[in-house]
Each structure stands twice: as C-alpha cells, then as structure tokens.
Amino acid sequence: MKKKIGGCKLKKMTFVSFRMNILFFIVFLLFSLLIFRLGIVQIIYGDDYKREIDRKENVTINTSMPRGNIMDRNGMLIVGNKPSNAITYTRPQNIKAEEVLKIAEKLATIIHKDSKEDLKAIPEIDKKDYWILKHPTEAEAKITDTDREKLKNDKDYDTKMYHLTLDRITSKEINSFSKKELEILAIYREMITGYPLSPQIIKKNVSPKEFAMVSENLDSLPGVDTTTDWDRYNNYKDKEGKEILASVIGKVSSSKEGLPKDSVDYYLARGYSRNDRVGKSYIEYQYEEVLQGQKEKVKNVTDKNGKVLESQVIREGKRGDDLVLSIDIDLQRKVETIIKEKLSKARLGQPYLDRAFVSVMNPYTGEILSMAGKQFEQNSTSGKTNVNDFALGNLTTSYEMGSVVKGATVLTGYQSGAITPGEILNDRPVKFLGTKVKKSWNTTGFGPINDLYALKRSSNVYMFLTAMKLGGQQTYIPNGRLSIDKVAAIETFRKNFSQFGLGVKTGIDLPGEQIGYGSGQIPPEAGKVLDYAIGQYDTYTPLQIVQYISTIANGGYRIQPHIAKEVREPSNQANELGPIIQEIQPKVLNKIEMKSEWLKRVQEGFKQVVNDPLGTGYGIKNKQYKIAGKTGTAQALYNGPISHSPGLMLWNITFGGYAPYDHPEIAVSVVVPWLTTDQSHVNLEIANEVFEAYFELKEKRAKENLTISNPKINTSKSETNKDE
C-alpha cells in the first residue's frame, strides 16, 4: 500500500517538472526573441533612431527693418521713423499654452500692461479661453455625459465640445478676473498672437526701467527679448498739430494689423510675413517696394519639439530706400496756410462752402510742387469745426469747372474748323425754341467780339456759337430750333479736351485717381452741348485742370504729373542724402494735334485775362510775376455733406494759370466749390498769394544759394516746423 502511494508522488513530481521545463523553454524563447529584436533595433536601426532623437530643423525667419524716409525735393525730411524700446516674444513651434501662460505671469511682474486701452482691447472670447486655462476642472464639468454620448461619433467632436464649453461660461465667471489677472491675459494674448519663431511685439514704448529689468531677467523668460522698434511720424504739423500733406502721404499698417486682409496672398507671394507693416494708402502704398527695407534673414536651429537651440544671422537687414518727392515742403506749408486763411474768411455767410483745392505743377516736367486741400468739418458731438487735410481731393473729387476750360473750347473750334483765329461773332442773349435764354455774365451782351476778347471777358455766347458751328449749325436764328448733331459735337469736344487731360486720368503716380462724371454720356438735349463748351456739363478734378493749363503753357505737350522725384539709397551719414538709385524722368503722354500759332493765340488770350484791366482775372495783383490764366464760374447741383433741399444750385469758382507767361515755371489750379454767390473772388485771392509764395521762396533761396543740386537736409522734429 505504501509503495502505491510513493509511486503516485513520484509520478506527480515528474509531471510538474515537465511543465516547468516547458515554461522555462517558453521564457527562453521569449527572451531570445526580445534579444533578437533589440539586436535588430540597435544594429540595423540604431543610427536611424539616434538621428531621430537628435533631429534638428533649420527654420529661416525674416525680420522686418524700418521703412525708408520720405523727403521733399530739397532734402527736407517729411516722414521718418521714430525709434522706441519694445519687448518681444518669439514662440517656439510646439510649446503648450500653459507654458506660455507661466512666462506671461512672470513678465507681468516686471512690465505694466494694464492701461484702459490694454484691458479694453481684450475680447470676450479671449477671456473665456483664459478662464478655461485657469479653471480646467470647472471647464470640464460644464460638459455632461449626455453631451459626450451625443457627440462621440461626430468628426468635429473636439471643436463642438470647445464651443459648447464657451457657450456655458457665464458672464459672472468671465468678469471674475482681477486687474492683475487681466494684465497677465493682455500679455498672454499678445504672446500667442504671433506666428511660431517670428518675434511678436508684446509692448511698445516701454519705460527705461522696464527695458532694463526685462533685459536682466532674459534667462528666466525663454523667448522674451528686448529690441528697438519704430513708429512712422510726419515731421511737419500746422498750428493745430495737423500733419502736413497727411492725406496724400497715406498710412502704414501697425505690427498688430500686419498685412491687409484683402491683399495677404499678394504680399506673401513676395516674401512678406503676415505681421509685416506695409503701406496701406497713397504714397506709402504706391511706393511700398521702395520704402520697405531689406529684411534681416535669421536661421533658427530647433530640436524636434520646436525649441530654438541656436540662431544665426545669414543676411543683414537694411532700412528701406529713401523716396524724394517733387513736393517743395516750404511751398506746401505756405499754400496750405493760404487756403485755410482765405477759406475761413470766405465761409462767412456761406453755409455750404467747406473746401478748396490748389495744385501746383512744373508744366515742363510734371513735377508736383504742391498739392493742397482743406476741408472744414463740424464735429457732431462737440459742435467744433475742424480743418482737415484734403489734399487728396485734388485727384479724387471732381466739379463743374466753368469758364476755365474755354481755352480748350476755342482750340477745339480752331481744330474742327468751326471758327478761325480772330473770327468775330456777335455776343448777345440767345434763345432757342422752347428753351430759356442763354447769355454771358454781361446780360446785355458784348456785341461783335473776336476770340481773344471772348477769352479775356469770358464770353459764354462766343462759346455757344462755336459749339453750334461745330455741331453743324452755322447760323443762329432767334427763337428758332437748335439743330445740331449733339452726338458728333460732344464726341468731338471730348476727343479734343482729352488731349489736354480733361475727362481722362492724368496718370499721376498715386492710386485712386478719378476722371470725373459725364465722360461717355450723350446729353439728353442738344443745349447741353452748349453748356459743355463753357464747362458746365462734365466734371473735372483740380489735377486735370492743372494738367490742361500746363499743356497750353508748354506749347502743347501733355505731361504726366508725378509726385516722386528720386529714389535714393539710405545714407550712413546724418544730414546727407544717399546716392541716387532712380530719377523720375518727365513723360509726355501726347502732343496735341493743333498748330503752334493757335496755341500762341490762346496763350495771348490767357495773358490778357490777368493783365488787361478788362480781364476777368485782373484782380490778381502781382503783375510783376507775369501771370497768365483763365477764371471760371459754374452753376452746379450741390452734392456735398450738408443736408439740403433737392435741386439746390450753387456756384463753383475756379482759376487755372501759369507764370511767367514768356517762360512758364509753374502752373496752378484753384478750385473753390459750393458758394451761394458768383460774386466772390476768393479763387483769385488764393491764386495771387500762391504765385507770390512761389516766387518769394525762389528769390529767398537764390540769396541763400540753396539749389536742388545742393540740397540741405533737415531732420528736426515737427515741434520746430510748425507754421508761423
């Protein structure tokens, strides 16, 4: 019996030993496989994995440089860059929001960013995001199990959960932040706004103390740095602090704005970054490629987590090239003062008169020496009247110009054969069947007059009769029909007027130029063709008038006006201009198809307008400057900003002229719209003082030996350049 029991034990021990052997064998196989796998990893793929661990990326970042200066023709600084201390943050590629917040919290103990403007700029969505970041458990609790079950199969699960959380954050919760917490948020949102590895400005115009403290703590503020930023400033201001030529200079976007939304793709394709500052309008926009500096190119070496290991400058940056304008800033300031003073007086008893424009151009080169405009606007809140720069109105607004265009009418008459030089026509009131009487300002008429007398005295009837002949009707019959081919007549007029720049773009190097109204339209009745001949149908811009006057002054060449004169390299020496890169050359757009003797005859008529005692421009007093020109008065519908009864008719008064008449140096247009009377002479008063300002400056500079080839640079701040 005992042997049986012992045999059972032996058999049981043998079975256990067998199972242990199998187990050890399996373990052996598993360890063998593991060793084999480790061998493959280390021997075959070891280098690859090591490279992956040590992997670095080279990321090239372009850093913007200050824009080029804008100067006047004599090297006077108009627009420059004002440096300011700034704090920046360069965000690594894969940093977590919590890590950025920690840096923001520490930075908030060093700098102040808690002004009303700073805190007011924080949108509600950012406050909600900040609340989620500060209260993750409470934010998680706002999502129920039902919500999760309902959306668990939704492909936009995370996005919808996020928005659901946002919707359930209460006003009490987002308004629970202390002022210090809001300050941290103001810093934090600036830090996360920028693009990875691209410096983002956290605060500009920092105090010396803030700048120093941040500089001392850079080791504990990863990604934070101190730098010198810049702001664009206009060096010239008037007595009220308004910038000279502001509307024509244009604006530059801020670093926060970056590239304009409507042209992001355009700029990105040209190597810009999204937070680059660019010209938004007019000169700053038109000459963006000149003024934008060459970016500093920096190569950042990062690890696989996006942490910057080292930075290397591979191309030095360079400030933008300098743009030298054809504008004479001293003349510009004087012209703006003249407009302001004369318009202020003329506005007494004139409820609709709110603006005036002056363009001054070299008739041979097209250089714009001055482009000035002022607009009086009443502040609806304070009731105070502000005088704003409206120089841009010279090319963006248009008006019926009146008799100033009669030089083009006479020349069109010569060209078409409707009249001949010296031809006498009878100026008396004319009336056609079913129409009102049409007459000259001398209501009884001037009687038989020739073309020169018609220009000198600004005869309307002489121009009416010329238009009739041009339209095919050679004889005026009192109370008879006006039987002209209005289509052929208006098209002939417009074709010839366009040769002078009337009704077409002048080609100035600024965006947004308008051509006026009426071009291409056929008048509803033939009588409008007669109105066209005296400048009371189509509308023109003040800039078109100065181009038209220049074309007559220079002997028939329509010159393209331009506001840029030169492009120069930025100078390394203070108060010196750099070498010329490009010089803007005069461009002839067309030569008018008319005989030189015809032009000389109209020039003689313009001379008599100002210098003959019977001339309508005789009120211009400075005869010593040998001024020639043409006055204009037009009755037109008011379409200004002040509420008015429908069909309100007002008067536009204008002047276009040049001097000296024997060898013109400047051409001038003056446009003053929307008076209730045609008896004002503010157009002549402005013109008189503009010519005087130009020639007095010329004489003064001759005494000082200041020439365009020997410019002096003035970089003084605007406080020293306010108008006297």
UniProtKB/TrEMBL annotation:
Transmembrane segments: none annotated. Residues 66-311 form the Penicillin-binding protein dimerisation domain. PANTHER family: PEPTIDOGLYCAN D,D-TRANSPEPTIDASE (PTHR30627), PEPTIDOGLYCAN D,D-TRANSPEPTIDASE MRDA (PTHR30627:SF2). It is found in: Cell membrane; Membrane. It catalyses: Preferential cleavage: (Ac)2-L-Lys-D-Ala-|-D-Ala. Also transpeptidation of peptidyl-alanyl moieties that are N-acyl substituents of D-alanine. Keywords: Cell membrane, Cell shape, Cell wall biogenesis/degradation, Membrane, Peptidoglycan synthesis, Transmembrane, Transmembrane helix. It comes from the Bacteria. GO terms for molecular function: penicillin binding; peptidoglycan L,D-transpeptidase activity; serine-type D-Ala-D-Ala carboxypeptidase activity. Its EC number is 3.4.16.4. Pathway: Cell wall biogenesis; peptidoglycan biosynthesis. Residues 357-691 form the Penicillin-binding protein transpeptidase domain. Pfam families: PBP_dimer (PF03717), Transpeptidase (PF00905). InterPro entries: Beta-lactam/transpept, Beta-lactam/transpept-like, PBP_dimer, PBP_dimer_sf, PCN-bd_Tpept. GO terms for cellular component: plasma membrane. This is serine-type D-Ala-D-Ala carboxypeptidase. It is a single-pass membrane protein. Its main location: membrane. The keyword Cell membrane applies.
